[in-house]
Amino acid sequence: MSKDSVKLLNFWPSMFGLRVHYALDLKGVSYDYQEENLFNKSKELLEANPIYTKIPVLIHNGKPICESLVIVDYIDSVWPGSHKLLPEDPYEKAVARFWADFGDRKLYDAGSRLIRAMGEEHKKAGEDFKWALMKIDEALGTIAPGKPFFGGDAMNFADVALAPFICWFKGYQKVGGFVLPGPEEWPNLYKWVDAVNSVDAIKISTPSDDKVTESVERYRKHFTGAA
Amino acid sequence: MSKDSVKLLNFWPSMFGLRVHYALDLKGVSYDYQEERLLPNKSKELLEANPIYAKIPVLIHNGKPICESLIIVDYIDSVWPSPHKLLPEDPYEKAVARFWADFGDKKLFDAGSRLIRAMGEEHKKAGEDFKWALMKIDEALGTIAPGKPFFGGDAMNFADVALAPFICCFKAYQKVGGFVLPGPEEWPNLYKWVDAVNSVDAIKISTPSPDKVAEFAEVIRQRV
Predict the structure, then answer these.
(1) Which CATH code, of 1.20.1050.10, 3.40.309.10, 3.40.1190.20, 3.40.50.2300, is assigned to A90-224?
(2) Which residues of chain A have pLDDT under 70?
(3) Is residue A111 within 8 Å of residue A168, measured between CB atoms?
(4) B91-222 maps to which CATH number?
(5) What are the residue ranges of helices labelled H in B58-169?
(6) Is the ipTM of this complex over 0.90?
(7) Which residues 77-106 of A have a C-beta within 8 angstroms of B?
(8) Domain boundaries, chain B
(9) Tally of CA atoms within 13 A in the half-sphere of B179 that contains its CB
(10) Distance CA B209, CA B206 (A)
(11) How does pLDDT run across B108-131, given as a tens digit for each residue?
């Protein structure tokens, strides 16, 4: 039986890359890791992802798969393992996909603006970021009441898509100049954060939030000349 | 056996809504259609069905709302797999189909939006970006399904359904963009794909006329 060749091209602070780490680690898949310098992208990255030239890229037996949620979906299909990330029920699957996509549309988008924007736009980015977390708190209470994850007792596609933002909370608050509401306001969110952080597979690849914060502050300076 | 209740909330020029039409029509699913007037006020039903984004399209199936066009198409494919699945069974082929569907949003729709809303240099760049995106689709068709009419080979798949709605908007984008798209000599795969899509009976059911779409686009452009 020939051994699968699985390689992840990534840049360590990327929350999109972290989604792929989480999916592979939750399923116990062995893989090689290649850190990419985004200011000097490798020939391998450019050939693997000619359309976007972005990380993460998963290369499985020589075939590249791009776009983090497409990759997670792929991993779930190839290695269904002991539990599938995507629910079998079509409606539950649609709900999981919706919240994964919400992570890109609302959470990542607001976070990006927290790093790049100035003045009023920057202030709005902070409000939008908090609104997005509030919606996630509400969703957890509606979709899986009394359970730690969107997936109930175990992480599912939505959890994997959203969990990488957790290690960025400190950084976003720093550059946003605000403090996030706490567990009294968002009980479901904080239970979810604790539950995610307790999963052994999640601990393998999650960067320290101090290290991420350092990066976030560096990016902010790059855009604005100020911390 | 109780009858399924399937309703699509949409706004007729939306290419996202058209994806849902295409998926339902290709699978021969019966559904009710509700045209949403997005201005001045969205309907109570839409706001309740999609409280996060308050956008169309929304599919309401037996009272449960599903939002976001590609998620809806995925849902339709799961609930009504016959006569043929839109998503390939093979994980890699499925990933390729998802990638090109997503490309429609990230690159084609994005450039098209800028063609309608941007001015000056940004508007000119939007035109270049739009043409680049179509060129990439032409190349992809040649690589993924050489000699076949669709991304899905002989029949439309998830990528085809995601990208086909842009076809009836080509005229509109050229009008507001002030350019003419390269023809079949430059993009042979793309134009064969366009002809193949337009020949599918199910596609003809809901596609608005390109002239009507162009008229609508010009009205929006004038407001900008």
Answers:
(1) 1.20.1050.10
(2) 1-2, 226-227
(3) yes
(4) 1.20.1050.10
(5) 69-79, 91-103, 110-117, 120-144, 158-163
(6) yes
(7) 77-78, 90-91, 93-94, 97-98, 101-102, 106
(8) 6-79, 91-222
(9) 17
(10) 9
(11) 999 999 999 999 999 999 999 999
CA distance A177 to chain B (A): 26
- Is B95 in contact with A70 (Cβ distance < 8 A)? yes
Domain A6-78 bears CATH identifier 3.40.30.10 = yes
Contact B71 A135 (CB under 8 A): no
Which pLDDT tens digit goes with each residue over B174-195?
Answer: 999 999 999 999 999 999 999 9
Q: In what order do the strands lie in the sheet with B58-61?
A: B32-35, B6-10, B58-61, B64-67
Six token digits for residue A103:
């992570």
Q: Tell me whether B51 touches chain A (CB under 8 Å).
A: no
Cβ–Cβ below 8 Å for B136 and A77 = no
Residue in the structure block whose two tokens are 């996630």: A136
> Using CB atoms, which residue from A63, A93, A94 is nearest to B92?
A63
Query: What's residue A17's pLDDT?
Result: 98
